[in-house]
Every structure is written in C-alpha cells, then in structure tokens.
Write a structure and sequence with these properties.
With 382 residues, the protein is of the alpha/beta class. It folds into 2 domains: 137 residues, Enolase-like, domain 1 (2-Layer Sandwich); 230 residues, Alpha-Beta Barrel (TIM Barrel). Helix content is 36%, strand content 20%. The strands form 4 sheets. Strands 5-6-7-8-9-10-11 form a 7-stranded parallel beta sheet. Strands 3-2-1-15 form a 4-stranded antiparallel beta sheet, with helices on both faces. The protein is globular. Bound molecules: 2-succinylbenzoate and magnesium ion. 2-succinylbenzoate binds next to loops. One of its GO terms (biological process) is menaquinone biosynthetic process. Pathway: Quinol/quinone metabolism; 1,4-dihydroxy-2-naphthoate biosynthesis; 1,4-dihydroxy-2-naphthoate from chorismate: step 4/7; Quinol/quinone metabolism; menaquinone biosynthesis. Belongs to the mandelate racemase/muconate lactonizing enzyme family. MenC type 2 subfamily.
C-alpha cells in the first residue's frame, strides 16, 4: 500500500492501429480499423497505469481526433501532471479545469492515473471508484448491414451468445421497416436503436412510428449538440430517448434531465472527460432516478477494462456496449481478454484495471511510440 501522492515520472504514448474483424457502419461513416493511443504512465516506484484515448482518426463522432489528442496530451496536459504529485485522481480534472473541452485527451490520462491510484491502494479499479457489483450485464451494438437478412442472422448469433440486449444502428432509409422486421422475428428481444444524430424534427412522424416497436430506448436521434429539440421530441414519444453525443459533463446531464431531453443517459468515459466526471454523472442520475449505461467506442482491452470497472457502480442498471474482446479483435492487447459468458462479464479481482497488457501483441499493432519524461521537461527548461 502506497499512501504518498503519485509522482509521475514518465508517460508513454503508444499509438496503435488495429484492424477490425469486420467493418462497423454507423449513420456517420464506416470504420475499417481503429487508430488510438494506449497511455502508459509510470510512477516513482516504476509501477505502470494504463489508459486509452478513444478519439477516432476522423472527427465524425466528435471534434477530437488521434492527432488533436496527441498534441493536447504532449504539449498541454502531461506538463500539468508533472507539475506536482497527485494525491487523488479527482485532482486531475481540477488541474485540467482551465483547459476547454478535449475531453477524450483528458480522460485518457486521467484513466491511467486512476489505474495507478487503484494499484497503489491495492484495490480493484471498480472498488476504487466505489463500485460493488461482482458481475455486469452487457449488450452488443450492431452496425448498419447491407441487407435485413444479414442483420437478422447477426442478431440471432448474438442472442444465442447470450447478450442481454441488442442495439441496432439506424439511419434514414434503414430504420422503421428494418426494426419492424427484427421485432417480427424476435418478439421478446430487449432491443434499442442508435441514430447517431441522423434525424431532425422534420422526421417527427417517422420517429413517432418507432413507438409501435417496443424499443428500450432510442439513442441520440437528433443533432450531436442539441438538447432543445430532443426535449420537443421526447414530449411526443413514449419510447425513452437516451442521449450520447450531447452529454459532455455533469452540467450537460443536469440540463438535459431538467429540460426533459432524455430519460436515459449513455455514459462514455472519454466523452465526459474521465472517470471522475463519469462518477459525478452517475451519482446525479442515481439521485434523480435516471437509468444509465456505459457506452463503447470500439475500444481495445484497456478501454474495455475501464468501462467494466465503471459499470460496477449501482446506477448502471441497463446493459452497456462492452462486448467481448473478440467481437472486434482477432487478438486483444490484454491478458486475459474480456470474456462475455451468457451476457455477463465477471469483474476481475486483481488491483487496478485487473488485466495485464500483452506487450508482444501491443508491439505488433504499434505504429509509433512517444515518451514524455518529467526530467526531460525539466532539462528542456534549464
Ligand atoms: O461496440 C462499441 O464499442 C460501441 C459501438 C457504437 O455504438 C459506437 C461506435 C463508434 C462510435 C459511436 C458509437 C455509439 O455508441 O454511438
Ligand atoms: Mg451512440
């Protein structure tokens, strides 16, 4: 057990490119591969903590990219971490407070600090966050397919695997008729739709028809930065709206809930700037009786491990998008890989994120490595 503040010595940015087993299509584009950073943060005892930056190569989902993340981390955020030792990970978001947005860059570093903190405290990351579940239920997100027949086959396979709910990506032209067909084949399926901002209030009639299909929720139907039109839409729909892209902070969550823009919130650690902010949103939603679930960003095992730890908190009452490692990857970079059995992940009981980095596999995907050291920074200054 180490009680002294964390004195970060070095941060290594491993840039990886991992090919997806199959392309993943959303209303905003198709992913063939995943480019991202694994953050390795080394403390004064030589212990390593790990984080993952979830920004994509292109600014489709949000304005951040792999390159903006690299700039923000190297030139702005890491120097702030080197300034003084860190007694608790909550201090990281305070230290980053003067920097506007860039939530995914902030979150990647903060995640590594949380992992280090948990390891030094000899706690699982889940316990360090206050989570008490031993197991979590998960669902799976299915991209837009080229035919309904293919979609039905894919759903059927994932239902057989035991996933607790199926999320279907929709866009104009791939929505009501497709979902209706799915409902016909799977009358009792816990299913939901994610539009990734593909609609506007002009589509009100179509969106209202989705009420017939007994969806658990519809995720982010309208603009990525909207909470006003979503409130108008929610007042017309019986299906709960879940916000994803529109929520970047506790304040956003508060406003959306007060306005009636949504009845459910998808928490993505990267989108809201880290685990500390995720906890704040979680606690607020618990108080307000708003169900939350943990979203996904096509993460490698490191990001999955963080999602799993967060989902151990009590208000994560709906299955999230943290599917097994082999849902996207031929070989994941952690050991053991994330395994989903009958829709359930058992939270690892080792300290920190609870999974080991597989360095051999990491290196096989690595296209660049940048090390930022505390002493370097000092020597540059002198
Ligand atoms: O399986 C996952 O990691 C989540 C897949 C997913 O739905 C998604 C993937 C990429 C970008 C945005 C989203 C989303 O939740 O909107
Ligand atoms: Mg979404």
């Amino acid at each position: 057990m180490i009680y002294s503040p964390i004195d970060i010595q070095e941060v290594c940015l491993h840039r990886l490119v991992m090919k997806l087993k199959e392309p993943f299509t959303t209303s905003f584009g198709t992913f063939q591969e995943r480019e991202f950073f694994v953050i390795e943060m080394v403390d004064e005892h030589g212990l390593s903590g790990f984080g993952e930056s979830v920004a994509f190569a292109s600014p489709w989902y949000s304005e951040e990219t792999v390159k903006t993340n690299e700039h923000m981390m190297r030139d702005i955020l890491i120097p702030l971490l080197f300034k003084d030792p860190i007694a608790h990970p909550d201090e990281v978001s305070e230290r980053f407070g003067a920097i506007r947005r860039n939530n995914m860059a902030k979150s990647a570093l903060e995640g590594a600090v949380w992992d280090l903190f948990a390891k030094r405290s000899n706690l699982t990351l889940a316990n360090a966050l206050g989570g008490e579940k031993k197991q979590i239920e998960v669902g799976i997100s299915i991209g837009i397919q080229s035919s309904v027949k293919e979609l039905l086959e894919i759903i059927s396979n994932h239902v057989d695997e035991g996933y607790k709910r199926i999320k279907i990506k929709i866009k104009p032209g791939w929505d009501y008729d497709v979902l209706k067909e799915v409902r016909k084949h799977f009358p009792d399926l816990d299913m939901m739709a994610d539009a990734n901002s593909a609609y506007t209030l002009k589509d009100m009639e179509l969106l209202k028809r989705l009420d017939e299909l007994d969806l658990m929720m519809i995720e982010q139907p309208l603009e990525h930065d909207d909470i006003i039109d979503h409130a108008k839409l929610q007042s017309q729909l019986s299906t709960p709206i879940c916000l994803d892209e529109s929520i970047h902070s506790l304040e956003d969550a508060r406003k959306a809930i007060e306005l009636g823009s949504c009845k459910i919130i998808n928490i993505k650690i990267g989108r809201v700037g880290g685990l500390t902010e995720s906890l704040k949103i979680h606690n607020y939603c618990l108080e307000k009786g708003i169900p939350v679930w943990c979203g996904g960003m096509l993460e490698s095992g490191i990001g999955r491990a963080h999602n799993i730890a967060l989902t151990s908190l009590s208000q994560f009452v709906l299955p999230g998008d943290t599917a097994s490692s082999d849902r996207y990857w031929e070989k994941d970079i952690i050991e053991p890989e994330v395994i989903v059995e009958n829709g359930i992940i058992t939270i690892p009981d080792r300290p920190g994120i609870g999974y080991e980095l597989n360095r051999e596999v990491l290196e096989s995907y690595r296209v660049d490595k940048k090390i930022v050291t505390k002493s370097n920074k000092v020597s540059l200054k002198s």
